[in-house]
Amino acid sequence: MVKEQVTVLNALDVTKTQWYHFTAIVIAGMGFFTDAYDLFCISLVTKLLGRIYYTKEGAPTPGILPPNVSAAVNGVVFCSTLVGQLFFGLLGDKLGRKKVYGVTLLIMVFYSIASGLSFGHNPEGVMATLCFFRFWLDFGIGSNYPLSATIMSEYASKRTRDAFIAAVFAMQGFGILVGGIVTLIISSAFKHKYKAPPYSVNPKESLVPEANYIWRMILMFGAILAALTYYWRIKMPETVRYTALVVKNLNQATMDMSKVLQVDLNKITSQNDHKVIEKRSVDQQDQNLFQKDIFSKIGWIPPAKTMSVTGEIYKIARAQTLIALCGIVPGYWFTVFFIDILGQFTIQLMGFFVMTVFMFGLAIPYHHWTLPVNRIGFVVTYSLTFFFANFGPNATTFIVPVEIFPARLRSTCHGISTAAGKAGAIVRAFGFLYASQSNNPTERDPGYPAGVVPEPKGKSLEELSGENEDEDEVGGKAKAQSNSITTSRTVPL
């Protein structure tokens, strides 16, 4: 690394927090907002689709999507997101973060609208076009994992980098929350306008006349806020680190940095010690996807046959919004506030441990929780599993990959890492669907190899990735990694 590059990048590492950083959090986070909104809403939409298209008298499970259709509608989310993570992660390193970033947002906007316009001459046709449009929607959403994390990490200072990346990821919580609010508003409007009878009275009459429009409105709303950020996303300059380290254009990197940040290029930082933490890919989306089924099993939500279609959607949305408000959103922001204080190792280990305790607490005395008097306790405990997933491994494993890989591979490797988490979600999602259709659930969690990576708190990206190893050749201080490691811990899985 030449001396001029060291000066520019170290000046970036010590820059004070500025308004642009918060703007970048919102712009980069809108992809995660759309991702969470889409995932939240599809679980509600599948309820509507079953009531609208699969209500047949005498059917074994009238008003419910057939298992193969449900698997296709839900499973396409994870599969397409995984492909998008790998594809756009690679493109982000080949073409640059900025060039790919604007295109992916247009994909998300277009296919959010297209999903709401799904068409067909029969139920199977509607489901097929919905799955097609959702594949491309989530393909675009997958780009946000490697690109948003990489862009935020390469613009933040080393003092606040972890918190800023966590804040980008925390936009998922707001997406879930807004999804619940939008669904509540739409379903409430139709619920009060039309007094449809319960499904058990007459399946046909339980549908309000505009039921076919409700799910389309919910899906298409996700495009609005994403579209509003398009202008700001394409106006973002290429990251300084990509331009300086990959493109090797130091003058352009300096100009781009001066456009958005006020930095002192004469400031050069020093290096601290290293610690070792565990890295493991985590994805909690399979929990979000099947919340509605869990709530029904414990009796928190009445049986579907006792409600009209809008009443059912309203109560499910209300329950999921409560979980988001009390568990998911606070968990994300606890990570934002404490990650630069506690460090990733502490938060990740704590999250895994507490989640394990609460999940055993839910699973072992399961029949105890199904009693009406104990349902509030179940909801509180269930909310805490989400809290510690986000104030824990769900957030930390999103941050780690952008900090330990060099700039030329950062986006690609982050895409691979998050895709590993998505693969686990795929196994869990289809396993859950299989188990729900049989009396012999035999799903098994996939194992992930343990890795040893440095604790990134307070260190520059170049220190963590090893890109400053040749700094001593141009007069910089030699920093042998073997001498800088003062504390190390290996956590086996």
Automatic annotation (TrEMBL):
<keyword id="KW-0472">Membrane</keyword>
<dbReference type="GO" id="GO:0036377">
    <property type="term" value="P:arbuscular mycorrhizal association"/>
</dbReference>
<feature type="transmembrane region" description="Helical">
    <location>
        <begin position="213"/>
        <end position="232"/>
    </location>
</feature>
<feature type="transmembrane region" description="Helical">
    <location>
        <begin position="163"/>
        <end position="190"/>
    </location>
</feature>
<dbReference type="GO" id="GO:0006817">
    <property type="term" value="P:phosphate ion transport"/>
</dbReference>
<feature type="compositionally biased region" description="Polar residues">
    <location>
        <begin position="480"/>
        <end position="493"/>
    </location>
</feature>
<dbReference type="GO" id="GO:0031669">
    <property type="term" value="P:cellular response to nutrient levels"/>
</dbReference>
<feature type="transmembrane region" description="Helical">
    <location>
        <begin position="69"/>
        <end position="88"/>
    </location>
</feature>
<keyword id="KW-0812">Transmembrane</keyword>
<keyword id="KW-0592">Phosphate transport</keyword>
<dbReference type="GO" id="GO:0015293">
    <property type="term" value="F:symporter activity"/>
</dbReference>
<dbReference type="InterPro" id="IPR036259">
    <property type="entry name" value="MFS_trans_sf"/>
</dbReference>
<feature type="transmembrane region" description="Helical">
    <location>
        <begin position="322"/>
        <end position="339"/>
    </location>
</feature>
<keyword id="KW-0762">Sugar transport</keyword>
<feature type="transmembrane region" description="Helical">
    <location>
        <begin position="345"/>
        <end position="364"/>
    </location>
</feature>
<dbReference type="Pfam" id="PF00083">
    <property type="entry name" value="Sugar_tr"/>
</dbReference>
<feature type="transmembrane region" description="Helical">
    <location>
        <begin position="20"/>
        <end position="49"/>
    </location>
</feature>
<keyword id="KW-0813">Transport</keyword>
<feature type="domain" description="Major facilitator superfamily (MFS) profile">
    <location>
        <begin position="24"/>
        <end position="493"/>
    </location>
</feature>
<feature type="transmembrane region" description="Helical">
    <location>
        <begin position="376"/>
        <end position="393"/>
    </location>
</feature>
<keyword id="KW-1133">Transmembrane helix</keyword>
<feature type="region of interest" description="Disordered">
    <location>
        <begin position="441"/>
        <end position="493"/>
    </location>
</feature>
<dbReference type="InterPro" id="IPR005828">
    <property type="entry name" value="MFS_sugar_transport-like"/>
</dbReference>
<dbReference type="InterPro" id="IPR020846">
    <property type="entry name" value="MFS_dom"/>
</dbReference>
<keyword id="KW-0769">Symport</keyword>
<protein>
    <submittedName>
        <fullName>Major facilitator, sugar transporter-like</fullName>
    </submittedName>
</protein>
<dbReference type="GO" id="GO:0016020">
    <property type="term" value="C:membrane"/>
</dbReference>
<comment type="similarity">
    <text>Belongs to the major facilitator superfamily. Phosphate:H(+) symporter (TC 2.A.1.9) family.</text>
</comment>
<feature type="transmembrane region" description="Helical">
    <location>
        <begin position="100"/>
        <end position="119"/>
    </location>
</feature>
<feature type="compositionally biased region" description="Acidic residues">
    <location>
        <begin position="464"/>
        <end position="473"/>
    </location>
</feature>
